[in-house]
Amino acid sequence: MPNSSSISEFLLLALADTRQLQLLHFWLLLGIYLAALLGNGLISTAVACDHRLHTPMYFFLL
């Protein structure tokens, strides 16, 4: 007997009500994603540019 409990697709019905709601969610999530990407990029740039930030993070706990 094959396993019939596997899920092959996932559909968010709450986001598919209207086109305006879809666009709102798209732009909102894109903005959050880009803000997180920018924040991570700034942290990586700061660590690459300042040699003092190359020390382990537990240094700040002392």
TrEMBL record:
GO cellular component: a single term: plasma membrane
One of the record's GO molecular function terms: G protein-coupled receptor activity
Keywords recorded for this protein, A-Z: Cell membrane, G-protein coupled receptor, Membrane, Olfaction, Receptor, Sensory transduction, Transducer, Transmembrane, Transmembrane helix
GO process annotations (BP): sensory perception of smell
Entry-linked InterPro entries: Olfactory_GPCR
Cellular localization per UniProt: Cell membrane
TM ranges: 26-49
Primary residence: membrane
Membrane topology: Multi-pass membrane protein
Name listed for the protein in its UniProt record: G-protein coupled receptors family 1 profile domain-containing protein
Classification lineage: Eukaryota, Metazoa, Chordata, Craniata, Vertebrata
